[in-house]
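Chain A, query sequence.
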Amino acid sequence: MDKGQVYKIVKGFILFIFGLIDLALLVRILLKLIGASTKSSFVKFWYDLSNPLHAPFDGTIRDLASESIVVELNSVIAVFIWATLALFALRVVEGIFKDSFKDKLQSLFDTFFKVAETILGLRLFFRLIGANKSTFISLLYGISSPFYEPFKGILPTIGSGKVVFETSTFIAIIIFIIFDIASEKLFSELGKHDAGIGNKPKKQAPNPPQQQYSNVQTQNTQQVPAQNAYTQQNQPPTQQQPVQQPVQQTQNQP
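Chain A, predicted structure.
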């Protein structure tokens, strides 16, 4: 089994696992939306299956409820987060299976910056909407602290209480985006430099004199018939002289 086949198997496994997770959450959202009764064994099965996937996000924000119909926004957040994790897992696996060390290093840097930007963006969003301290939010704030702390206190936070705009987090996102773009440019230039090493442009050797002469001669011979045809058309017609037939001399017989 070659490297490409192993990569396809690992990629398919990741897509299958995270696909099942999102499917269970989407079915849960739909059943909540239509107000399905928990007395049904089918509904109970999907709720039991999705509860462990939904539990870390429970209580993050308030769900929208009207009588028996519930828009479970926490499950919507869970679908987005699980899909994001699947995307990052695919990027990591893709980087591992790169051929050259430079490509692996470039994929590692790119994934690192994308993860940092996503974590800081989620932190900024949930701080802005005043999210509650659920398991997911506590984990998010803890993971984002190493990226946020160096920029803490640059500018004052706008707002008070739970709903705030963390200016320091916003600045951190901009800085990481700048470093991300700079790293992409750097690796791009390194790739161009590596491609040019030892690859000198090949000069075309001039044609030998005999070959040049033969080419000119063949061009001249191709032009001759055209000139002959032109001269034949413009040449005045010549008068044909009558053909003189030999006169047979007969000897007079006595």
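The chain has two domains: 1-97, 100-194. Residues 128 and 164 are 5 Å apart (CA to CA).
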